[in-house]
Design goal:
218 residues, alpha+beta, six-stranded antiparallel sheet, 6 helices, 10 strands, 22% strand
């Protein structure tokens, strides 16, 4: 086919994510878009001759440029079930696909869906990585002691300000129990806070901790 398009459809328009054969075209109103019909069902949508189809014979895309006669579109369906667009082929002459061509078009639509979802997942991973990197910079350069403790009570991260406040180097305490910092008379308090954290409840509170030399710090 001389024209092939990956289109995405929203409430008002279809726009072309990829476009071969329609130079300069980037979108059309949804109310004239063939693809707006193709996304209504999981089945392949095929129009052998638009001039003989009552739904399309007066369509401006048929009566004028690009002079559509043949259209076949397979919906791009996300893993969550939404149909968001199509992979379609268009000709200016009437025609009809054979069974193998229909199957190929369906496979191309599935490949487009996986590519779109894969790119979104990659962006989410990259965004998470950037956020983690910024958090690490904040932790490293903060004037406040910042300590990360796992659910089982082991110190996972320990910033330079924590070293200055408590006297432990990161190498000395990461991987060890955070209870080293808890005075014996505060053990019950720490257990209660740990239980609340395990249930997903954050808490801000004032307490006392122990430095490496045994002195206490508010």
């Amino acid at each position: 086919a001389p024209i092939s398009v990956i289109s995405l459809v929203d409430t008002e328009r279809q726009w072309f994510k990829a476009n071969i054969g329609l130079p300069g075209a980037s979108e059309t109103p949804r109310d004239v878009a063939f693809c707006a019909h193709a996304v209504l069902d999981d089945a392949l949508f095929e129009i052998p001759d638009a001039t003989r189809d009552a739904r399309f014979m007066d369509n401006p895309l048929v009566t004028g440029s690009p002079d559509i006669r043949f259209y076949a579109g397979a919906p791009v369906r996300l893993s969550s079930g939404e149909r968001i667009g199509t992979v379609c082929v268009i000709d200016r002459e009437p025609r009809q696909l054979n069974d193998m061509q229909r199957e190929v078009l369906k496979c191309l639509a599935e490949a487009a869906s996986k590519a779109l979802e894969g790119r979104r997942a990659l962006r989410e991973v990259q965004a998470a990585g950037e956020l983690a990197a910024r958090a690490a910079l904040v932790m490293q350069h903060s004037a406040d002691a910042i300590i990360s403790v796992s659910a089982d009570g082991l110190v996972k991260r320990w910033n330079p300000a924590a070293e200055a406040l408590f006297g432990y180097r990161a190498d000395d305490i990461v991987g060890h129990g955070a209870r080293l910092l808890v005075p014996p008379d505060r053990a019950g308090e720490e257990l209660a806070v740990g239980a609340r954290m395990a249930n997903g409840h954050a808490r801000t509170y004032e307490t006392v901790r122990l430095r490496r030399d045994g002195s206490r710090v508010d």
